[in-house]
Amino acid sequence: xxxxxxxxxxxxxxxxxxxxxxxxxxxxxxxxxxxxxxxxxxxxxxxxxxxxxxxxxxxxxxxxxxxxxxxxxxxxxxxxxxxxxxxxxxxxxxxxxxxxxxxxxxxxxxxxxxxxxxxxxxxxxxxxxxxxxxxxxxxxxxxxxxxxxxxxxxxxxxxxxxxxxxxxxxxxxxxxxxxxxxxxxxxxxxxxxxxxxxxxxxxxxxxxxxxxxxxxxx
Length: 218
Ligand SMILES: CC(C)(COP(=O)(O)OP(=O)(O)OC[C@H]1O[C@@H](n2cnc3c(N)ncnc32)[C@H](O)[C@@H]1OP(=O)(O)O)[C@@H](O)C(=O)NCCC(=O)NCCS
Prior knowledge:
Number of helices: 5
CATH class of the largest domain: Alpha Beta
Distance between the termini: 23 Å
Largest sheet: 5 strands, antiparallel
Bound molecules: coenzyme A
Shape: globular
Number of domains: 2
Strand order of the largest sheet: 4-10-9-6-5
Structural class: alpha+beta
Helix content: 25-40%
Number of strands: 10
């Protein structure tokens, strides 16, 4: 599913069930030593996905340990992103020579719980949301939430600063794309200040997925 919103420079792997077919590296085991089963399962499953994605760019398995603010430490020369939610797990990676940053997120396809949209959306986000067709059967509020999480996951590895939901505006489009504008100063990326991202979204099999890929040659 996630491949439908990724360019060919990105390798991916996804799973719709828990995977227990890999062993964790000692550093990874230490990271979830005191975690509950659910956390250990999602951590392991998404790392199984990440190893397959890494193999797709010819990279051997390596420990992927949560680092600063939870961002996974990818091997030198590799960019990547991981996501997990009930019934869906995915990892994407690319060579840094092809892709400057990438962020993915997945969510159950259901309307956001009461009060969440108000907390995560800016007025501009809501204005665009109101123009989207309710007849499409898409929980656009959830897509917005997921898009903002993808923004953060693409932003953090290059900016190394937290980004609040109110510090970026996301304009969703019904055609499966979105445009994000970051409202705080960003680092230089590809020779110019990073001011936002273009992304894509998809709803399939009860899951919303969003992805941002900043390709060097785009
Ligand atoms: C970090 C965050 C985005 C994760 O999203 P989530 O829906 O809770 O969880 P997901 O399953 O989709 O993603 C979890 C994975 O994200 C990755 N991740 C965590 N922190 C990250 C960070 N700072 N940068 C990049 N990736 C990160 C990790 O790989 C993690 O999985 P792991 O712990 O097994 O390695 C979320 O918890 C958060 O802190 N959001 C607040 C910031 C934000 O979204 N701002 C919006 C700006 S517009």
